[in-house]
Amino acid sequence: MLDSAIAIIGPPAVGKTTLTMQLGQLSGRRVFRLREHVPETILAATATSAERLGWIDDLTVTMALRSYLDSVVDDGTAHTVFFDNFPGSGQQVHIFLSTVRKLAPTCLVHPVELLADSAILNRRIRDRRVCHHCERDPIHDPRLPAVPSPADPRRCACCNNILHPRRGDAPRLFSARMRRHWQTAEGIREAFASVGIAILQIESNKPPEQIASELLSLLNARSTPS
Fold first, then answer.
1. Are residues 10 and 31 in the same domain?
2. Per residue in 137-173, pLDDT tens?
3. Which of 76, 107, 110, 197 has its CA 20 to 30 A from that of 95?
């Protein structure tokens, strides 16, 4: 039975995907990434300009989220879902909450906002790479951080192919993504606050495994009756 829906939000390069990859390896836990559940044609349309970079309309969001949660609830083996970089707007918060309440009425929602200063974000942008061979993205725009080989950091530790910068980390696109984050962040916070849900804020300047451990401890403390 689905017990927890944990929304991981924050600015670009703060470590949302790295954290959910770490947490998603645990038994009974899954990760929802919106772009993995929408049609390729819609994804391609959002990649045509800095203004629309990755932005998906609310109807598509609703359909994708409902279909995904339906499958999780029907399957019954997952008790926790981590939502990577979702919801991405105040309206998406309302879509998220209404869908969870309809399909999993007893599920607890925990929004988590990762924080980092600009120096850390810039360093991560400079250093992170993706693998086009390991991540077969439908529009050839892989997003998952690759692990570099210890023998040659230019190559992937899994397949030994050359790693590449992420497309969205190019200066113009990254600036657009950061602007959009600041334009939507307060709306997301206000939407959760309007229904009495507090956002847990965590500094992400530590190793991913340490952040994951701290997050699980904090969530466990929140879920335990006092």
1. yes
2. 888 889 999 999 999 999 999 999 999 999 989 999 8
3. 76
Angstrom distance (rounded) from CA 9 to CA 14: 9
- Structural domain contains residue 114: yes
Alpha-carbon distance 87 to 112, whole Å?
Answer: 11
Q: pLDDT digit string (tens) for 110-131?
A: 999 999 999 999 999 999 999 9
Q: Is residue 108 part of a domain?
A: yes
| CA-based nearest residue to 204, from 115, 126, 122 | 115
User: Domain with 49 in it: what CATH number?
Assistant: 3.40.50.300
pTM beyond 0.85: the answer is yes
What is the rounded CA–CA span in Å between residue 26 and residue 72? 16
Q: CA 124, CA 150: separation in Å to the nearest integer?
A: 18
Instruction: Answer yes or no: do 113 and 202 share one domain.
Output: yes
28 lies in which domain range? 4-126+174-223
Number of domains making up the chain: 2
